[in-house]
Design a protein that fits this description.
Chain lengths: 297, 517
């Protein structure tokens, strides 16, 4: 074993020792969140406590043109690498202006069909490839739980049940076969989903999740901003908001309306989705992508 | 430039979002337009060509003698005047159109319709006028042209006659007027002459010469007067000078004329006494006279004593003195008479002068009156001459027929409709439909802009852009797009097919209008 490996092992041992301390922190309201998972090093293969509950549907993802855990190159992967960088820097940055709940990221859009779920899942998979981070994908779109459906877990209990205190966190949290990725499904349909999401329970849950898992990025997939109020409510609980805008489709005034709705949020960033190769669009990136593509395919 | 191009292409891309709107608009517009075009009534145009011959042989011959009307201008005016109400009404009557008109309003409508459907056009150089009439009924169109032709010819010919008639009437009226004025002027002159008879020039001799003569006479008499005065003065002086001489001769038997008379009479008496007796009447008379004279003498002597100058009486006896006195008296008398004469002459001159003034005034006034008269007379004569000219012109026209009309192309019943050109209109409708559709999409794209690039997003929202994700062309999406494209093409093609069908039908002569009839 090289010196580096020795050092790494040492580090894992110290973090493991630190965890019992974290577990002893009192959690109010009884939402007993399990201890944070250990960030895994490439070499160590710790024994999992549970087997993965959800299998990532790689073929489906590939069919839909999304990122998949194994294919980490290509234009899409590069694009998301670009996108996640500022998010991660905000989430785990040090400095004077520490954003509250910065590791909570809400992905939303103005209108349906702009690509929220697409962006959420890809972002989750992309961040899951990070060395030092873990990702929790929360499907907060209770009405149309597309992310849950994608992963095949829309039948399971999820966020709503958690907020109703009917289930515990460890019961609803699902692990996937990508070690760093976990999923929290939407849960059952509820008539007062908005109220639930606006309740103090959600607020506390958000706060807890942010504090308890400082190394974890929690991505919320939400309904469209202008279709329902849930997203706006959720935006108040999270630290960063990603607004997905469909290129050449969403009218500008609608996006402006959305940005006005998100005016209270600390960090709002936009992602232009479904851009088409046009006259000079992606001019510079074209060569980059080609380079990668030719190399690896 | 690059940004502009990008922007334009961006708008086009966005416009493609609204393509269905555009297609729908195109369809609606095309269908509506084609239906309208189809049901437009056919218009038949009948045409006739007329050649107006305005050249005649007589014209250059009669130039200067007669007033040649500008025939070309007249014909041009005619074409404009043809569309006045009375003419149009005439045309309506000739073609039995007025049978349909029940009241004035309907007649008005018919007249207006005629106004729009009839036309006269002319080529500038050639005098060929083409009269056209449009109407849905081909036979009526031909009748209209016929009627128009008749009215045109009539009007053009009649117009000239009317013109010269008018001219003649005007001239006659003016001539009468002038005659009246002439007579009034003559009367004025007559009265004037009567009033100032004697003062008129030519009467009483030449006033100026008279005046000159009078002046000469005056001068002469003045001179003479001067002489006379001088002579008298001289004589008077001499008389005074003579006085001392007279004193010496005082002792002499200075006989005064009186004494001389007495002496003479006495001598006569003596002679008579020799002949006759003292009882003779002559002797008695003589004696009487002698006594009288003696009495006188005594009186004179007594008077003479009272007289201061004793030398006077003595001087009386002096014959030279007496003569001189006589001469002086004569001279005085002369002077007096000459003075009187001068005065008369002066008076005469004054009189002549005043007469002259009056004469001059009268002369001037007479001249004025004469001049007025002359002017009136002159105009009168001119008018008379013109009237003769007009008479001559009219007879020229009547006898030589200045305008000749020749129908080059008689009107015929048109077999094919002239308007509307349905095929052209259909094409126009098609283009309009596509244009409007495209325009609508563009407008919508402009009204609701979207985001094309990251820069745009950043600028508009003022939010940081994390990145852009390119479209993933999964096969499903591709297929969907492809199908959409096909549908769009199908819609456009459908429109074109309908257009083709329509054109074919139109060529065969089928359209809504023909079906309706």
């Amino acid at each position: 074993m090289s010196i580096i490996e020795k050092a790494l092992e040492k580090q894992t041992r110290t973090t493991r020792e630190a965890t019992p301390e974290a577990a002893s922190v009192a959690i109010p309201e009884g939402l007993d969140l399990p201890p944070p998972p250990v960030p895994k090093s490439p070499q160590s293969q710790p024994v999992r406590s549970k087997p993965p509950q959800v299998r990532i549907p790689v073929e489906k993802l590939k069919a839909k043109g999304m990122l998949s855990p194994d294919a980490s190159h290509g234009q899409l992967a590069e694009e998301y690498r670009l996108i996640k960088r500022p998010l991660l820097m905000n989430a785990f940055g040090e400095g004077k202006n520490i954003i509250e709940n910065a590791n909570l990221i809400l992905v939303t859009s103005s209108l349906p069909g702009e690509g929220k779920t697409f962006t959420t899942v890809n972002l989750a998979l992309s961040i899951a490839a990070e060395r030092d981070r873990t990702v929790l994908l929360v499907d907060a779109d209770v009405i149309k739980p597309a992310a849950s459906m994608l992963f095949g877990v829309h039948e399971r209990s999820g966020l709503i049940d958690l907020l109703e205190r009917e289930k515990t966190f460890s019961e609803v949290l699902l692990r996937t076969d990508v070690p760093k990725l976990s999923i929290l499904p939407a849960g059952r349909q509820h008539p007062h989903a908005t109220e639930l999401l606006a309740s103090e329970a959600m607020q506390l849950l958000a706060k807890d999740m942010s504090r308890k898992y400082p190394e974890r990025v929690i991505i919320f997939d939400s309904p469209p901003l202008l279709a329902t109020t849930q997203a706006a409510v959720l935006a108040n609980h999270v630290g960063q908001v990603v607004l997905v805008v469909e290129s050449e489709s969403t009218p500008q005034y609608i996006v402006q309306e959305s940005s006005r709705m998100l005016a209270d949020c600390d960090v709002v960033g936009c992602v232009l989705n479904k851009t088409k190769q046009g006259f000079g669009l992606g001019y510079y990136a074209y060569y980059g992508y080609q380079y990668y593509n030719n190399d690896n395919e | 430039m690059y940004e502009l191009l990008q922007q334009a292409l961006g708008y086009l891309k966005v416009a493609s979002r609204y393509k269905w709107w555009g297609v729908a608009t195109a369809w609606v517009v095309c269908l509506a337009g084609w239906t309208f075009v189809s049901q437009m009534p056919d218009q038949y145009t009948a045409e006739a060509k007329v050649y107006v011959d305005t050249r005649s042989v007589l014209r250059p011959l009669l130039r200067g003698l007669t007033i040649q009307p500008d025939v070309n201008a007249r014909v041009r005016l005619m074409t404009r005047l043809l569309f006045t109400r009375p003419n149009l009404e005439k045309i309506a009557r000739m073609t039995d159109l007025d049978l349909a008109a029940k009241d004035d309003e309907a007649m008005e409508m018919i007249v207006n319709r005629l106004k729009t459907s009839l036309a006269i056009s002319s080529a500038r150089k050639e005098n060929i006028y083409s009269l056209t009439a449009d109407d849905p009924d081909p036979k009526l169109a031909k009748k209209l042209v016929q009627a128009m032709l008749t009215v045109f010819v009539e009007e053009a010919l009649g117009e000239s006659r009317r013109d010269s008639d008018n001219a003649q009437r005007f001239l006659s009226q003016q001539i009468k007027d002038y005659e009246r004025r002439l007579q009034a002027a003559e009367k004025n002159i007559e009265e004037f002459k009567r009033k100032h008879y004697g003062l008129l020039p030519g009467q009483g001799g030449d006033l100026y010469e008279q005046l000159q003569l009078a002046y000469a006479q005056l001068e002469e008499s003045k001179l003479v007067l001067e002489e006379a005065i001088n002579r008298r003065n001289e004589i008077a002086r001499q008389l005074e000078d003579e006085e001392p001489l007279f004193m010496e001769f005082n002792e002499d038997a200075s006989l005064s004329p009186l004494e001389m008379r007495i002496q003479t009479l006495e001598s006569r008496l003596d002679e008579m006494l020799l002949k006759y007796t003292p009882k003779h009447p002559e002797v008695i008379a003589l004696r009487h006279s002698i006594t009288q004279l003696k009495k006188q003498q005594e009186e004179m002597l007594s008077q003479g004593e009272t007289m201061e100058d004793a030398g006077m009486s003595g001087a009386e006896a002096n014959p030279v003195f007496q003569q001189m006195k006589i001469a002086l008296n004569e001279a005085e008398a002369n002077v007096a008479s000459l003075k009187a004469r001068v005065k008369t002459y002066e008076k005469k001159i004054d009189r002549l002068k005043s007469q002259m003034d009056q004469r001059l005034k009268v002369e001037t006034e007479l001249k004025n009156l004469n001049r007025d008269y002359e002017t009136i007379k002159h105009n009168y004569e001119v008018l008379l001459a013109r009237r003769e000219q007009a008479n001559l012109s009219e007879s020229v026209e009547q006898n030589t027929d200045t305008i000749k009309f020749r129908v080059v192309d008689p009107p015929q019943v048109p077999s094919k409709p002239s308007a509307p050109n349905r095929i052209l209109l259909s094409v126009a409708v098609l283009i309009a439909g596509f244009g409007l559709g495209f325009g609508l999409t563009l407008m919508l794209a402009l009204l609701r802009p979207t985001f094309i690039s990251v820069q745009q997003l950043r600028e508009v929202t003022q939010l940081p852009v994390l990145g852009s994700v390119s479209m993933n062309w999964v096969p499903e999406v591709r297929q969907r797009k492809w199908h959409e494209f096909l549908r769009f093409c199908g819609a456009c093609a459908g429109l074109l097919i309908v257009f083709a069908l329509l054109v074919m039908m139109e060529i065969k002569g089928l359209n809504l209008y023909s079906i309706d009839i």
